[in-house]
Amino acid sequence: MKFEMILYEKKDNVAWITLNRPEKYNAQNQELRNEVVAALEDARNDEEVLVIVLTGAGEKAFSAGADISNFLEWTAISVISSNKAARRPYNFIREIPKPVIAMVNGLALGGGCELAMSCDMIIASENARFGQPEISVGVIPGGTGTQILPRLVGEKKAREMIFTGDPISAEEALRIGLVNKVVPLDKLRETVEDLIKKLKSKSPAILKFAKLAVNKSLETPLSVGIESEADYFAMCFGTQDQKEGAKAFFEKRPPKYTGK
């Protein structure tokens, strides 16, 4: 597939997906979302890819959210039809059994905030700002924001952000648990690459089980989640990587994982 709205690069077992509409603050139209999903699907199916990174072109925005140029023409029926016909990246990212990192440079608003929240970890620059400003243009968050944000920052803060539409700073996002780390803009890529290096040293097979287990904790009652965790824990012992990890520990050497 030829990409017009994103940049897609695979290098050293990492897939880099860059939203590439800097003149529009990397706003998301349907074409861009379709391209992100296509790139994510390729990265998921490529066994050489161990980690996926999402970011935005330029220093001003990760993504300022939906492209609202069509909001005046959209109807309830057209939106429902579009959502059912197209695969959305917000949901798909959570299904990918590989670590997905959001490298947030600048604004992450509306659908941009939702896209970042869908990722497993968020590393943000000091100039990043997060928010769900949809209320200011007559809608509510529609890309999982009302569901994921309360789980990350708590009910009251999520209600405040969604009801007022006010953005928060990177420092505030770190304080309330929305992001993992905040660094100077010129250290952002370096910090993400350090995290990638650490993740690549782990077993891809066991990381898959870890992600599935954490996902389950957000989707089910605690009792069901605990049972699922026990099942995933047991599955680890059916992998070659588990034996290699234990053997390497006792032999005091770095493990050599194969993902099997």
Detailed description of the structure:
It is built from 11 helices and 10 strands. By secondary structure, the chain is α/β, with parallel strands linked by helices. Helix 3 runs parallel beside helix 4, helix 5 packs across helix 6 and helix 9 (204-219) packs antiparallel against helix 10 (222-236). 47% of the residues lie in helices and 16% in strands. The chain starts with 5 loop residues before the first strand and ends in a 9-residue tail after the last helix. The protein folds into 2 domains: 6-200, 2-enoyl-CoA Hydratase, Chain A, domain 1 (Alpha-Beta Complex); 204-251, Lyase 2-enoyl-coa Hydratase, Chain  A, domain 2 (Orthogonal Bundle). The longest helix is centred in the first third of the chain and has 16 residues, at 30-45.
Which key features would you list for this structure?
single chain; 260 residues; alpha/beta; 2-enoyl-CoA Hydratase, Chain A, domain 1; Lyase 2-enoyl-coa Hydratase, Chain  A, domain 2; 2 domains; six-stranded mixed β-sheet; four-stranded mixed β-sheet; 11 helices; 10 strands; 47% helix; 16% strand
